[in-house]
Amino acid sequence: MPWSIRKSGIDGRKAWPVPGSALWLLLRNPSAVAGGGIVLFMALMAVLAPWLAPYDPNALNLAARLQAPSLAHWFGTDEMGRDLLSRVVFGARVSLVIGLVVIILAGGLGTLAGASAGYLGGRFDNVVMRVMDVILSFPSLVLAMALAAALGPSLKNAILAVAFTQVPKFARLARGEALNIRERLFIKAARVSGFSAPWIITRHVIPNCLATIMVLATLTVGETILVAASLSFIGLGAQPPTPEWGAIISVGRKFLLDQWWYPTFPGLFIVLTVVGYNILGDALRDVFDPRLRGGRL
Amino acid sequence: MKTLKRRFVGAVLLALGAVFAAGAAWAATPKDVLVVGVSSDPSTLDPAVTIDNFDMREIFPVYDRLVQYKVVNGLGTTAVEPMAAESWFASQDGLTWTFKLKPGITFSDQTPLDADAVKYSIDRMMAIKMGPAGNFDSLDSVTVIDPLTVRFNLKHPFAPFLQVLATNGGSIVNPKTAKKAKGDDLAQGWLAQNMDGSGPYRLKEWLLGERLVLEARPGYWGPAPALKQIIIRIMREPSDRRLALEKGDIDITESILVDQLPQLEKNPAVRIGRYDGQFVEYVYLNNTRAPLNDKRVRQALSYAVDYRGLIDHVLQGYGAQMRGPVPSGMWGHNPKAFQYKRDVAKAKELLKEAGYGNGLTLTLIYSERRATWEQIATLLQSNFAEIGVDLKLEMMANPALRDRVANKNYELCLGAWSPDFGDPYMFANLWFDSQYGGMPGNRSYYSNPEVDQKLRRAAEAGDADERLKLYTEVQDTVIEEAPYIYLYQLKAIVPMRKEVEGFVFNPLLESMYNFATMRKR
Questions:
Q1: In a mutagenesis test of the A interface, which of B308, B316, B361, B374 is the best target, namely the one with the most A β-carbons within 10 Å?
Q2: Nearest-CA neighbor of B478 among B488, B469, B486?
Q3: Contact B259/A79, CB-based, under 8 Å?
Q4: How far apart are CA A214 and CA A208, in angstroms?
Q5: Residues B445 and B286 sit within 8 Å (Cβ to Cβ)
Q6: Contact B374 A251 (CB under 8 A)
Q7: Closest Cα to residue B350, out of B388, B379, B321?
Q8: How many angstroms separate the CA atoms of B460 and B423, rounded?
Q9: Crossing angle, helix A245-252 and helix A261-288, to 10 degrees?
Q10: Could you tell me if residue A21 is inside a domain?
Q11: Which positions in chain B touch A259 (Cβ < 8 Å)?
Q12: Can you tell me the distance from the alpha carbon of B228 to that of B212, in angstroms, rounded to the nearest whole number?
């Protein structure tokens, strides 16, 4: 977009975001703005849940069971008279925590393993990557189910299970980047100067693949939330009364015929969140990955 | 983006497909085929092993028993009438019962149903010593007098003995099945998945998790049933069952959420039968495990439950709070017995006394067997939270749940019970006598020598007044000691298509159907 650059340049005023910068590119990308908006909205909802939710998400009110959406209960009530809006709002918290923890765990471990494998090469590389291939050879949902079932049904275990299935993605990406970076001059310089491999990996290799890792992380959050909700749906994730979206749908599906609102709203929020992260991730990739800029996968 | 797009298109197609599949109205089931939508597979088909009504539903139409419950004016009763037996007489002292069998009854392979077959079946059931044998404690031995005469020798007089023979433990199995035995399993392995009886139906196929099919058995000695085929469809979701019933894919269903009844009733093709049952739901508390081995903790939990809200709202009034173990409608029920009422302060105090003033964590297991259980579990969780008990919920498949209870490997468990015969024995002896610990009935593993002794006396006594006195005393004790949380007694709700006729409800045959005498218009 040379025209815009020129324009702001002529203007002479200090512009923020700086034209040409990543943020500037993002803000000019409609899907990034839409995706980012959704993600921000969900994040705010999660953080402000106690102030936004009109009721205690776990307070039973048997006299108000299964009420249709109304002014008092925007999303209606569930079979125990709990306010569904409050449960959905608090559910954003659970989903956000799941998304973040999984990304930190899987992203951290995967990046470290992948970058080390790529940088060190040889047998270490072979062993690590074959292990990753084995994990990758399972469909992630099936593997997560098996792990969650083996660990015992709880939110913590579901998070661990999902994180485990996401590690190889990060490992492969980080390894590819590391293979590239390893040949760069500054790495060779560091090596010649006697810096140890761990130091080079953590100070040089990993920081240099961070941009692409961030893109993958954003794209993965959506999938993570979906898998975690699926685990909760089949009873292997969040345990009652935790207001997790998948868990709410799981109970609510029994009431779908006459009380449509019950599973519908948490379902919409899952869709919205996943779509939000996916569009944002795509846009981030467009911006940060020069090889893909303008193109599509 | 391409993959994302492709995925999205795939998802839309999938959703549309699901909508069409659900919307397609199948033609009603054929006139001589009855389809029943049920919530779970039978756990076993062996009449000597199970006391689960969901299993008996399949067992009863396949096997004959000596006697059966009489139907009077379309209503099931607790009185019995001949089935495979022609006539019988009891000795004066009530210690021997002699049965004359109907001649000419045969199993599918032409083996006659004779005194040997009766002896084989009863001996086998007694040797297996599972739940059904619990009803037969008074039985000492079975003697073959001649091919068509068989005698039961009792250890002590047992008033409801004749009724006991109408329960599934009294089912007569083809003696040739002995050949299917593997090692010393008494053919349990084979009979768990196969049936070989002399009744109006036989097992055609059983596809686990999908359906179980019974077909009319050629050569049946009684009148040929109007329904040639019975298809038991396993449909875990209550809303699936309801939809299928409305569409005519199934003819009868069970365990529908009460919240769905008003809508369901609007469908002119559906009739909802409501019956006064003796079906109760309660919570087993594992009495062998700390902290539930402390009476005060059990009482505290009993005081914590919001019985009123549970019955008025979750059950929409289709039930009444239990008053001790023996349900109303059965003799021995004590309308003046003590009833726990919600009392949070008292519950907290009891917990404090027991040393759990700072709260404790317990786990409740339950299955999808009853549509309301999820709600009951949620309510208990919330009620218990108010007295400082953190209740973890764990839902599992019914067979897994039974294993956990059978192995004492649980803390709290939701349970349901209905009587096989019309005697408080079903609710007192089986629930509280320590010798029936586990699946036979004492699922809390409650043990109190004084109660054991009284119950055994009550089972043996011939005098009704004495029995009543003993059962009343026992009930007072077990209400006070609270080995279970006594929740509620339910009304039976049986939704079916209007063209189904001849269904007879009997509180002793809960969740079971008289297929052989039912028909479709």
A1: B374
A2: B486
A3: yes
A4: 11
A5: yes
A6: yes
A7: B388
A8: 13
A9: 150
A10: no
A11: 259
A12: 14
- Residue B34 in contact with residue B492, Cβ under 8 Å? no
pLDDT tens digits, residue range A238-282? Answer: 888 899 999 999 889 888 888 999 999 999 999 999 999 999 998
All residues at 6 or more sequence positions from B184 whose CB lies less than 8 Å from its CB, including other chains: none
- β partners of residue B282: B415, B486
Per-residue pLDDT tens over the stretch B281-336:
999 999 999 899 999 999 999 999 999 999 999 999 999 999 999 999 888 999 99
Answer yes or no: do A297 and B379 touch at CB < 8 A. no
Supply the pLDDT for residue B427.
Answer: 95
Q: What percentage of residues in chain B have a pLDDT greater than 70?
A: 95
The Cα–Cα gap between A231 and A161 comes to 10
- Structure tokens of A133? 């291939």
Give the containing element (helix H, strand E) for B14.
helix B2-23
Helix H or strand E encompassing A150: helix A140-151
Structure letter (DSSP) for residue A253: G
User: How far, in Å, CA of B278 to CA of B330, rounded?
Assistant: 8
Q: How far, in whole angstroms, is CA B204 from its chain's centroid? A: 23
Mean residue pLDDT of chain A comes to: 89
Beta bridge partners of B187: none
Cα–Cα dist B492/B514, whole Å? 16
Which sign does the torsion angle of CA B75, B79, B38, B202 carry? negative
A222 domain-assigned: yes
B243 inside 8 A of chain A by CB: yes
Residue A138, token pair as written in the block: 């399972």
Output Rg (C-alpha) for chain A, integer angstroms.
Answer: 23
Helix (H) or strand (E) holding A224, with range, is: helix A206-233
Buried b / exposed e across B376-386, counting CB within 10 Å, b at 16+? bbbbbbbbbbe
Nearest to B379 by CA among A237, A107, A60, A268: A60
Question: CA A74, A80, A85 angle in degrees (round to 5)?
Answer: 25
CATH number at residue A157: 1.10.3720
CA distance B246 to chain A (A): 12
Rg over CA atoms, chain B: 24
Q: Do A60 and B1 touch (CB under 8 A)?
A: no
Q: CB of B162 within 8 A of CB of B13?
A: no
- Chain B residue with the nearest C-alpha to that of A79: B375
Residue A189 falls within a domain, yes or no? no
C-alpha distances in angstroms, A45 versus A4, A91, A102, A239, B32? 35, 9, 20, 22, 58
Could you tell me the residue range of the domain that residue A278 belongs to? 26-58+69-181+209-293
Q: Which of A111, A139, A99, A107 is nearest to A221 (CA)?
A: A99
Q: Which residues pair with B364 in a beta bridge?
A: B393, B412
Whether A6 is covered by a domain: the verdict is no
Condensed to tens digits (0 to 9), the pLDDT of residues B50-91 reads 989 999 999 999 999 999 999 998 888 888 999 999 999 999
Kindly report the length of chain A: 297
> Count of domains in chain A?
1
Chain A residue set in contact with B, beta carbons under 8 Å: 58, 60, 62-63, 65-66, 79-81, 153, 235, 239-241, 251, 253-259, 278, 282, 296-297
**Range with the lowest mean pLDDT among A50-54, A142-146, B60-64, B257-261?**
B257-261
Which CB contacts under 8 angstroms, 24+ apart, belong to B175-180? B175/B111, B175/B116, B175/B117, B175/B120, B175/B121, B176/B107, B176/B109, B176/B111, B178/B120
Q: What angle do CA A12, A15, A17 make, to 5 degrees?
A: 155
Cβ neighbours for B448, distance < 8 A, ≥ 6 positions apart? B432, B434, B477, B478, B481
- Whether B2 has its CB under 8 Å from any CB of chain A: the answer is yes
What is the 3-class SS of B460-499, one letter each residue?
HCCCHHHHHHHHHHHHHHHHHHCCEEEEEEEEEEEEEECC
Identity of the residue numbered A142: V
